[in-house]
Inverse folding.
């Protein structure tokens, strides 16, 4: 190894400085401080999703007591926090644990190759400012890049859109100088982004219409946690945070379980909540999907802000399909015309793994979309690689936290037993065609299913999406369970040499 290569070598290399990557670094610092690490981040700042998205009203659709890290309390009173508050929280966490000095910004990972002989990953990172390529090496690689393409969201082509004389924008590429005050706005979509945009833009726009092809389930949550505010008067902040976190985990699990067991009843409860906010004469057909609750992620609004914008007349919802764009707006299949100065295509994201980087093992490309994940963290037949992949039916960070704790436990076990390599070995008997996101029927999941890793029919290959089962398994489950194969650097090389000598 040359002097320059030595300077670019760490024990653990983390891809991404979003909430997962910063969490991974903090967990390593807390649980395994003897390990050196480096984060490669493509953007120029910390935050990931919360640094990328800057559209009006951008916020979390999960409560911050479970979306926050398990090791650092969320002290704001907001339950569904805005993007700026979340970005500040992640940055403050990084600074508290000294993570910033371990980040190399402006680096896009384009290739990662594992060498069994050397027992390490060689990672190529592109400096997009200069065009230069850097080489990094590590013993263990953690992919904390999420599962969507940061360069572009999902953007279908609409008939006649070239004739539209207004502004057409996707939330993922929101212009800093876009002024919607006094403008007529149409937001195409019915997911979390659309229901966030509509009430935020309606505050100053002339009018906002949410144009949806089909409805989503929308649930209102209190904007602030009054219980926690009261408890802080008599209890320490850390304890109040843990009480709220435990309470909300139980509520999330209970709601999900009830929705799957009693979908018809859950549907009635959600619609009753909408009617309470909209009034007795409201047309609830715009809030009544054809699918069962939690076939797609529930959409959450703080203090019913979307319902309030509709009831006030500042916004409305239209359920229809697009016939064509016109010079002044959109003509619908029903023949109705929607006039618009601005059209926002809140049409979703595109699935992408590991930031689009190529992954190889001993020179062979790795078909990640054909391999199972072990405990939802490690990857079948790929040594020393962890995916930090959060929940889709609860707060992302709940799973990210315990996944990082598991990686720290695994690394400590390997050190204690003088191992340098670990790889999960699967079998066709437990292999399923389901992807790791198969429990959701969302559009982005259906579009990107063929790009996602698979899962198995039973544990530890089955993705549980259940914190109450995952937490004990990842925090206390046996490391050497007969499925993980451990080894030492050079063993594969020595074995090949021995066979060649015979």
């Amino acid at each position: 190894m040359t002097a320059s290569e030595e300077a670019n070598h760490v024990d653990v290399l983390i891809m991404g400085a979003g909430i997962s990557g910063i969490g991974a670094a903090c967990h390593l610092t807390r649980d395994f401080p003897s390990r050196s690490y480096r984060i490669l981040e493509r953007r120029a700042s910390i935050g990931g999703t919360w640094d990328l998205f800057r559209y009006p009203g951008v916020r979390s659709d999960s409560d911050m007591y479970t979306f926050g890290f398990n090791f650092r309390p969320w002290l704001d009173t907001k339950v569904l926090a805005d993007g700026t508050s979340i970005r500040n929280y992640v940055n403050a966490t990084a600074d508290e644990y000294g993570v910033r000095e371990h980040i190399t910004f402006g680096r896009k990972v384009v290739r990662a190759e594992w060498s069994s002989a050397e027992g390490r990953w060689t990672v190529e990172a592109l400096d997009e400012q200069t065009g230069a390529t850097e080489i990094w090496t590590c013993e263990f690689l953690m992919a904390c890049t999420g599962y969507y393409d940061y360069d572009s969201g999902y953007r279908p082509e609409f008939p006649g859109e070239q004739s539209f004389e207004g502004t057409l924008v996707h939330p993922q590429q929101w212009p800093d100088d876009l002024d919607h005050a006094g403008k007529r706005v149409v937001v195409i979509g019915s997911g979390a982004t659309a229901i966030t945009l509509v009430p935020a833009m309606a505050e100053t726009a002339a009018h906002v219409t949410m144009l949806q092809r089909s409805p989503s389930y929308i649930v209102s949550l209190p904007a602030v946690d009054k219980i926690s505010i009261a408890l802080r008067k008599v209890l320490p902040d850390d304890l109040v945070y843990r009480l709220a976190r435990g309470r909300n985990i139980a509520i999330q699990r209970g709601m999900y379980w009830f929705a799957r067991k009693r979908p018809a009843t859950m549907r009635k409860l959600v619609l009753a909540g909408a009617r309470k906010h909209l009034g007795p004469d409201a047309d609830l057909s715009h809030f009544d999907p054809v699918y069962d609750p939690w076939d797609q992620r529930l959409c959450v609004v703080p203090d019913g802000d979307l319902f309030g914008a509709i009831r006030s007349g500042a916004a409305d919802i239209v359920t229809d399909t697009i016939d064509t764009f016109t010079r002044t707006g959109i003509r619908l299949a029903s023949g109705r015309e929607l006039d618009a100065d601005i059209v926002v295509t809140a049409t979703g994201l595109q699935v992408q793994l590991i930031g689009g980087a190529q992954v190889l093992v001993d020179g062979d490309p790795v078909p990640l979309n054909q391999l199972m994940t072990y405990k939802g963290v490690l990857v079948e037949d790929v040594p020393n690689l962890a995916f930090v992949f959060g929940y889709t039916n609860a707060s992302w960070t709940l799973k990210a936290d315990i996944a990082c704790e598991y990686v720290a436990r695994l690394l400590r076990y390997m050190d204690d037993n003088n191992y340098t390599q670990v790889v999960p070995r699967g079998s066709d008997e437990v292999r399923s065609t389901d992807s790791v996101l198969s429990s959701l029927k969302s559009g982005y999941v259906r579009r990107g299913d063929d790009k996602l890793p698979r899962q198995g029919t039973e544990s530890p290959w089955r993705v549980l999406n259940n914190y109450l089962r995952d937490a004990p398994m990842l925090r206390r489950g046996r490391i050497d369970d007969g499925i993980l194969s451990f080894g030492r650097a050079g063993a594969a090389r020595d074995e090949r040499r021995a066979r060649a000598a015979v």
In short: The chain has 14 helices and 25 strands. The domain at 161-239+252-345 is CATH 3.50.50.60 (FAD/NAD(P)-binding domain).
